[in-house]
Amino acid sequence: MAILSPVLTQSSSVLVDHASGSWIYDSKGESYLDFSTGIGVTSTGHCHPRVVAAARDQVGKVIHAQATTVRHRPMADFIDELSTVLPSSLDSVFFSNSGSEAVESAIRLARMATGRPNIIAFQGGFHGRTMAAASVTSAATHVRSGFGPLMGGVYFAPYPNHFHYGWPVDQTVEFCLRELDFLFHTQTMPKETAAFLIEPVQGDGGYIQTPPAFLQGLRALADEHGIMLVCDEVQAGAGKTGRFWSHELAGITPDIMTMAKGIASGFPISAIAAPTEIMSRAWPGSQGGTYGGNAVAAAAGAETIRVIADEHLVENAGTQGSELGRLLAPLADRYDQVGETRGVGVMRAVEFVDAEGRPAPQTASAVLKAAEREHLLVLTCGPYGNVVRLIPPLNVSAEEIALGATRFQAAVSAVLD
Ligand SMILES: Cc1ncc(COP(=O)(O)O)c(C=O)c1O
């Protein structure tokens, strides 16, 4: 009798029966307010009726129409819908299945497009678990340790996480840009550097918005040296930050962008987008895959983008997310063990520390468990596992935000009072 790999543990004990909107129902009929959204995936809520209808309709027409063998309508539709939200310069799209695969494709494209070998990634960044994606990940050693050697040509630069350094934001940005210049002089010359790879809002690394001045600094350096600026929008994209793409918060446009998770409300599909001129520099045959751009996932993706527009969900994510942030903020005044509450849009986080201000992962785990007892599902993140993240769907209601905040406060109180 086979069992699920014992290494794949779950953060809650919930056995899901079905789910709808912001709610998960278990096999015993209990309901849970889902502020985990499957790690930021169910953007339009669970089983949005329009997404369900689009997928059902497509299943009866064709499920698998392999993208390097034939063309199919849902993929063309999805590209049309993405065109309404992508920066106009990123007019070429290649589909794959997971965020990691999109990151792999972006790395391959950046190297082929520049003819340069090296990638500069940023400390605390998370880009996935496949070999190249793990090689550029530094959000946690458990993602990259034990199966090396990893891919070469990867250099990590300090990331402007002001809470980690304990400095004001401006000073942290200045330090990080200086260290990047130092990296150019000590480890990888600009002319051998293919790409900067960065999350405009760090996800698994702790829900930290990259300061706009840092992204603007990277954009300027990329332009100066012919380096590709790759923004990983897998977690923060598709409306979560109150902008469709999180790089918009800094007013910059990347050369290559990855996307996945929220773009199809739960169907496994990912993509990279780039200017056609850059995408065309990929070597023939270097892009492909059996399942990439699956017809059912693409139909769900196209409908997801339409639902986000029709129901004004980017705006809703901004409004409701700010309200959640406002409701969580007093926790930092009330408890010494809350080092910071932060976030943007519906990406919200609470960082727990001990009496000396050091990371307190046990507190975060205890709060996660207490939240489950309050019937609220949240997740931990951060290199030390001491951050609790709350990620409601884009269409969360004001009542659900208020209820989620009340349940979370109760969970924190159960652990810390
Ligand atoms: C920013 C970012 N990039 C890439 C990935 C990898 O995506 P996947 O787990 O679909 O491979 C993730 C997953 O959490 C992510 O948050």
From TrEMBL:
Primary enzyme class:
transferase
Kindly state which keywords UniProt assigns to this record, in alphabetical order: Aminotransferase, Pyridoxal phosphate, Transferase
Q: Which reaction does it catalyse?
A: (S)-3-amino-2-methylpropanoate + 2-oxoglutarate = 2-methyl-3-oxopropanoate + L-glutamate; 4-aminobutanoate + 2-oxoglutarate = succinate semialdehyde + L-glutamate
Q: Which Gene3D superfamilies match?
A: Aspartate Aminotransferase, domain 1 (3.90.1150.10), Type I PLP-dependent aspartate aminotransferase-like (Major domain) (3.40.640.10)
Q: In the UniProt record, does the keyword Transferase occur?
A: yes
Q: Name one GO molecular function term.
A: 4-aminobutyrate:2-oxoglutarate transaminase activity
Cross-referenced InterPro entries, in alphabetical order? Aminotrans_3 (IPR005814), Class-III_PLP-dep_AT (IPR050103), PyrdxlP-dep_Trfase (IPR015424), PyrdxlP-dep_Trfase_major (IPR015421), PyrdxlP-dep_Trfase_small (IPR015422)
Where do the TM regions start and end?
A: none
Pathway the protein acts in:
Amino-acid degradation; 4-aminobutanoate degradation
The record's section on Pfam families has: Aminotran_3 (PF00202)
Cofactor dependence: pyridoxal 5'-phosphate
Q: What is its EC number?
A: 2.6.1.19, 2.6.1.22
Family, per the entry?
A: Belongs to the class-III pyridoxal-phosphate-dependent aminotransferase family.
Q: What protein am I looking at?
A: (S)-3-amino-2-methylpropionate transaminase
Q: What is the lineage of its organism?
A: Bacteria, Bacillati, Actinomycetota, Actinomycetes, Propionibacteriales
